[in-house]
Amino acid sequence: MAPSLWAEKRQKGETLAETQLISIVDDHALTREVIKDLVKSLGFSALTFASAESFLQSSSIAETRCLILDVQMPKMGGLDLQQHLSQNGFDIPIIFITAYSDEAIKERALNAGAICFLRKPLDLGCRLIDCLHAALDRGRGPAPAT
Hints:
It is a single chain. It contains 6 helices and 5 strands. The model is unreliable at 1-14 and 140-146 (pLDDT under 50). The longest helix is centred in the N-terminal third of the chain and has 13 residues, at 29-41. It has helices spanning 5-11, 29-41, 52-57, 78-87, 103-111, 126-138; strands at residues 21-25, 45-49, 64-70, 94-98, 116-119. The chain has a single domain (18-138), classed as Response regulator (Rossmann fold, 3-Layer(aba) Sandwich), CATH 3.40.50.2300. It is globular and about 30 Å long. The protein is an alpha/beta fold.
């Protein structure tokens, strides 16, 4: 099994972090800030958005290398944003986070291509870091045609 790009770069003392933007979309301010602090502590750039709509209105969509996304938000929820991005040709790796675990929603998110589905606050430590690495190792390309 070939080592990941992430592992190869770390072994060489190189960093991918400086050029990689992680966008965090969550309607809860404290959650956004905690995740942003974690992401920045890993050396990545991070932007936060209080809603799916504010993320869609930003100029950061094309630069976002990974999206950490809350499932339940007012107006447009995380699954709706995932679908919208896919339908518009954006293949951004998504890590879903939620305070409300629901197997049907988890299955829907993962079947639509999400990298991980994590529960707040239990999984926001090492599991989030592992998922972030998996998302960045996956890379980006055009969304598959349907």
